[in-house]
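Reply to dn_fold:

You asked what the input looked like. This is it:
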Amino acid sequence: MSEVVIGGGGHNALIAACYLAKAGIKVTILEKGKIGGATVSQKVFPDFEARLSRYAYLIALLPDQIVKDLDLKSKTLSREVASFTPTKINGADIGLLINSPISDRTKSDFKNLTGSDEEFEAWAKFYNDVSQFAVKVAPTMLQKLPTRSELKSAVNHPIWDELVEQPLNKVLEARFSNDLIRGIVLTDGLIGTFSRSDELYSNICFIYHLVGNGIGEWKVPVGGMGAFVAELKEKATALGVKLVENSQVKEIVKTESGYEIKTDTDSYACNYFLANFAPQVLARLMGGKPPVSLDGAQIKINMLLKKLPKLKSGADPRTAFAGTFHFDESYSEFAKAYEEAANGNIPSKIPAEMYCHTLTDGSILSPELIAQGYQTLTLFGMHLPASLFDKDNDGAKEIIKQRLLNQLNEYLLDPIEECLAVANDGSLCIEVKSPLDIESDVGLPRGNIFHKDLSMPFREDNEPESWGVETQFENIFLCGAGAIRGGGVSGIPGHNAAAAVLERLSK
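and this is what came back:
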């Protein structure tokens, strides 16, 4: 009998398995496809030796403690540029470059955009305050959930009320006056979600995007996301974890000693079961009621370029595309796009952002492609809920793709279509994945990258102790994005699910 069976083989499953196996527990992972889940690298365009991080791109939330505990060697690289945002002032093309760390160029760009130093100073103060929040919250992510009062006391800063108690729009409108600056800040509250700035849900998303390791920096995995997963797979195998691919969990049956996990071809007995798939899937397998959750609301577009496009602003493309490239993401544009999508229409202007992996890490390309100047671009279109694709997925994708490319071209001297690599059959190297595609490919319900609605990283004062991974079913735990403090490439729910099992076993 396996002590623990894990359904789903993403990075969180592998991290949970490593912790459990290190403690001497027998673990089996059942994965319906290939080990890795959404954290895979794939040769998306068959004619080219380019292995793209297809669904998950950057690493920010992975705690250093997990890296240390599992002796992980996979490298991540910092991006010299935090973001670049092209825009127009009185018909002139300009751009806002935000360096990491902040430079005089950034201060100058703020002044050029807004006409004074006030907005830059407000920006610097806001993110300094956010850092005060992040450094206190980050260490709690691998512990039992603190209570609201405990975490508030630990933060001990007015930023708590701004981020936790009042909607994000209040903070943005009080702190900033410029429409574009408000939007750039807001984007971290809306990535992957279909919500407005006046809903606390955007606060939760914002917190998770800014709290990683106490610094909130999103880093590029060397070799792509697949390299990170490959190391985890190697670690798990060396520790004796049994990895079973092409084995989808079909039924979970309660037994006297635990559970019987049935697939199409086999069954596995276990004392504990960890679900690395969505809570909705677990509920269905257990005959329960799936939790209600927001639709996923993003489109992912992967591109291979034969060259980077030049920008109308004159900014160096190798700088502009190295960080997050925001376009059409002002505060008012976000609001308009939301209202249009909420009414069942594709937004007339889609807020979007993208980045170029290969400007930081060229190792995902062959030496030949590097020598020829090839690059990748990954575009993330927002406020595109799954419902927009239900009637005609392919048709909606085509409309949205063309709309986004047209929007992007407004800021480029070289139309992006002329920069795309061309396959042997004459087709352009561009791949579009809707929320429905993401659900079909990697099992995220309605394309929700967080599996279900996010929760604050604490419990209410009157709630019982919890790791944030518990379910209503005895000895069944969530170890994926659907756990509290799940989402992103973090390993946090994997660690916490393993901790919950080990705690039970110790009693």
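The mean pLDDT is 95.
Hope that clears it up.
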